[in-house]
Amino acid sequence: MTDFYIEQILQKLHIRKRYCGYRLLFRAVALALEDEARLLNVKNQIYQPIADSYGCKASNVERNIRTVISLVWENWPGALQQIVKYPLYGPPSASEMIEIIMTYIQRTYLISLI
pTM here? Predict the structure, then answer.
């Protein structure tokens, strides 16, 4: 069920499936939702498992996520600002974006995740 919520948020942010970063961000948020403690060591507990499953480096995972964040920030900053409950003065980092989406899902769909 969380996959549906992640997909809804990514669509709301105008992140389309044609971007490589879409599936990587999707998986990163799913991992964070499974265990919030993974946010304490994003590189080893989120990026590296994703990289292993796609046969690439953890730095590639982070870079592709940053690429979709840049697209959102440049073209639809209002969409991002709507889901964040504090002012953003620049694009969030990849780990911040994972946390932003995870927190939004938890806050918005809390009843469904229990």
Answer: 0.93
